[in-house]
Design brief:
By secondary structure, the protein is of the alpha/beta class. It folds into two domains: about 270 residues, 3-Layer(aba) Sandwich (UDP-N-acetylmuramoyl-L-alanine:D-glutamate ligase); about 140 residues, Mur ligase, C-terminal domain (Protein-Tyrosine Phosphatase, Chain A). Helices cover about 40% and strands about 15% of the residues. It contains 16 helices and 16 strands. The strands form three sheets. It has an eight-stranded mixed β-sheet with strand order 4-3-2-5-1-6-7-8, sandwiched between helices. A six-stranded mixed β-sheet has the order 9-10-16-11-12-15, with helices on both faces.
């Protein structure tokens, strides 16, 4: 018999304990599989099947859409569970109840109860699989009215894709080229992976977008006898009270509101007042066009980690009258085409680029960013003439704040955003 697992006492110990489940980045494609997750959930009694779920996939906007869906449901008096990734402020964002991340002591208590169950299963789940299973277990124990579940990568083989209930509501946000090394090289291939969250007789809300993605999603929904509802955000936003949101967030909020409207009819939820709708629209996730005042400067923080997101960020900045500004940015290592496209999208508004080196330990152990010197070299070749490499992240932020401009930007990987944010929130 193995020795009893020592009890976790602090959130730092919880983070350390979970890190032991993080596989190396090379295992990312191998971990895009449901086999282990299904075995673990079966050992736990399949808690996911006790939940009324809103399941959200997409390349861009899925976390914001998840937060907005949660906010609208909470405004209607419904108790929700929400799990998203990556986390930005605290690991407790992976386990949200009643409209907010749970308290650290509660997270520790849940983890101390849960890890021995995992040990007894004799399975060896990854970090993401374990935390997703924990979320399902906690949400079922809490008997939430709705569980809002964001996919990690893709959908078809994603660890969240284990709910077979026909009343699951599927939400598909904008689709673009990302994680091509796992999901495929074309919009059609990636759309097929995102559409993989659709199970038989589900109701599917999809953001209106390019024909290539829409054709795939429509065909997949038909094979599952699922009802497909296309959301046209411009039409819906025009019917809502004025929202203080950038264009890309208005698009995400429209998708979330259409989801709420569907659930309200199906489940007899109340009609929300304009004040409730506006309040829900203010509850975007951290690290999405978030603003801080530091050392007399406005610092904008936005995890725009691909060309699609960077194009939306550029439009949002332009709406604020910001056409160029100094930027601190880097991206997680990815196929060269993605990095090139991201830099091309960044080039029109980066007056100066500072590239730090960093690594991320969420979900995978020691995922590396693109080497800063190499990214600077490519950035210069693509027309960002003023670019510098700063190996140390804190020094890079210091250099950004030392620029003469009144407004500066931190963008790129959400993992980078999560590392920078503590310096901005607690200067």
């Amino acid at each position: 018999m193995s020795a009893a697992r020592p009890r976790i006492q602090t959130l730092a110990e919880a983070v350390d304990a979970l890190q032991h489940y993080a596989p190396p980045p090379a295992a990312m494609k191998r971990n895009y599989s449901l086999e282990l997750m299904r075995e673990l959930l079966a050992a736990l009694g399949d808690p996911q099947e006790q939940l009324r779920v809103v399941h959200i996939a997409g390349t861009s906007g899925k976390t914001s859409t998840a937060y907005f869906v949660r906010a609208l449901l909470e405004a209607a008096g419904q108790r929700t569970g929400l799990t998203v990734s990556p986390h930005i402020v605290s690991i407790t964002e992976r386990l949200q109840l009643g409209g907010r991340p749970i308290a650290p002591e509660q997270f520790i208590r849940y983890l101390n109860d849960f890890l021995p169950l995992v040990d007894r299963s004799n399975l060896h789940p990854s970090y993401f699989v374990l935390l997703t299973a924990l979320a399902y277990q906690v949400f079922a124990q809490a008997a939430v009215d709705y569980a809002v579940i964001e996919t990690g990568i893709g959908g078809l083989g994603d660890a969240t894709n284990t709910i077979r209930r026909p009343d699951k509501t599927c939400v598909i946000a904008d689709i673009g080229l990302d994680h091509t090394e796992i999901l495929g090289d074309t919009i059609a291939e990636i759309a097929a992976q995102k559409a993989g969250i659709i199970q038989r007789h589900n109701h599917v809300l999809v953001q209106a977008q390019g024909e290539e993605a829409m054709h795939v999603i429509d065909g997949y929904a038909a094979t599952k006898a699922a009802a497909l509802q296309v959301v046209h955000p411009d039409r819906l936003v025009a019917k809502l009270p004025p929202l203080d949101l950038p264009p890309f967030q208005q698009r995400n909020f429209a998708l979330a509101y259409a989801t709420y409207q569907y659930l309200a009819v199906r489940d007899h939820l109340p009609t929300l007042t304009p004040a409730q709708i506006r309040a829900a629209a203010r509850l975007a996730p951290p690290g999405r066009l978030e603003t801080f005042m530091v050392a007399g400067k406005t610092v904008i923080l936005d995890g725009a980690h691909n060309a699609q997101k960077l194009a939306s960020l550029r439009a949002a900045l332009a709406a604020r009258g910001l056409t160029t500004l100094p930027v601190l940015a880097n991206f997680m290592a990815a196929p060269p085409a993605k990095i090139t496209a991201a830099l091309q999208a960044l080039q029109p508004f980066a007056s100066h680029l500072i590239v730090p080196d960093f690594a991320a330990d969420q979900d995978f152990n020691g995922r590396q960013a693109v080497p800063g010197a190499a990214l600077v070299s490519e950035a210069r070749a693509l027309g960002i003439a003023s670019a510098e490499h700063q190996a140390n992240l804190e020094a890079a932020l210091h250099d950004l704040l030392a620029r003469p401009d009144p407004v500066v930007l931190v963008t790129g990987s959400l993992y980078l955003v999560s590392l920078v944010r503590p310096f901005l929130a607690n200067p």
